[in-house]
Amino acid sequence: MACAKTGRKLMSSSIRLLEDEIYALRIKMEQSYIEEATFSSEKVIDLSRLLDMKINEYMQFRRSFAGQQS
Q1: Domain assignments of the chain as residue spans, ordered by start
Q2: Calpha distance 28→16 (Å, rounded)
Q3: How far is 46 from 57, CA to CA, in rounded Å?
């Protein structure tokens, strides 16, 4: 359960989920690169784009969380 005012626990678990997702995507992208032996394969590029989106989402989430703390 999260604090109704700050949502602290909910935010913490959301950040953790994003961190875990980013880590898993990074590993998957690295494995795809090894299998494809090139950064320009469609599979590696797609995973890289998805990873970029998740990192941007994470950074946005962190900024909004930091703004709520001030």
Answers
A1: 22-62
A2: 18
A3: 17
Helix, strand or coil, per DSSP, at residue 44: helix
Give the whole-angstrom CA distance, residue 23 versus residue 57.
14
User: Using CA atoms, how far apart are residues 68 and 63, in angstroms rounded to an integer?
Assistant: 9
Check pLDDT > 70 for residue 5: no
Rounded to two decimals, the pTM is 0.74
For residues 17 and 25, what is the distance between their CA atoms, to the nearest angstrom? 12
Query: Rounded CA gap, 70 and 61, in Å?
Result: 15
Residue 40's φ and ψ, nearest 5 degrees, are -95, 10
Q: How confident is the model at residue 69 (pLDDT cuts 50, 70, 90)?
A: low
HSE toward the beta carbon, residue 51, CA cutoff 13 A: 15
